[in-house]
UniProtKB/TrEMBL annotation:
Keywords: Signal. Residues 1-16 form the signal peptide. This is Uncharacterized protein.
Length: 152
């Protein structure tokens, strides 16, 4: 009975992402990475208010520029760090030296873009309306959708 339940969960999980590589440009077409990312725990961190301190901390963390995150980042956060690296947030941190005194970078746009990307990649499209992310989702689609007429 338990084996059947586990098998059913695996089939349903894989079915949700089976055509993922037809929709998004790399690296968002990596089914294993996206499957690891799209958990309820990660959704709560990215989308909910209680996850804000964690997100703002991750946005500024040096791990976004590390190649071998598995060695240094706790396994439960590896998918989130991979996701933020894939969005190019290391480059943002390099361009904006947030450690300089007197420099303040508001990360609201970055947070909203992250939420929209998460909602699209993880197929949580109800969150786009719930959190008013439609403009950010449109921008993400222009940048990362495999076939997009706005990107020519």
């Amino acid at each position: 009975m338990i084996v059947l339940l586990i098998w059913l969960l695996i089939v349903v999980r894989l079915r949700c992402f089976c055509d993922l590589n037809d929709e998004w440009l790399p690296p968002f077409d990596d089914i294993s990475e996206v499957t690891a990312l799209c958990t309820k725990e990660n959704r709560n961190i990215v989308m909910l208010r209680r996850g804000l301190p964690m997100m703002y901390s991750l946005f500024r963390h040096d791990a976004l520029c590390w190649l071998e995150i598995q060695r240094y980042v706790p396994p439960r956060y590896n998918p989130l760090v991979w996701f933020l690296q894939s969005l190019g947030y290391c480059d943002i941190n390099r361009a904006i030296n947030w450690r300089r005194r007197g420099v303040e970078y508001k990360r609201d746009f970055q947070l909203m873009m992250t939420r929209a990307a998460f909602a699209l990649i993880c197929r949580q499209t109800d969150d786009i309306g719930r959190y008013q992310l439609s403009r950010y989702a449109a921008l993400f689609r222009i940048m990362f959708e495999k076939i997009n007429g706005d990107r020519m």
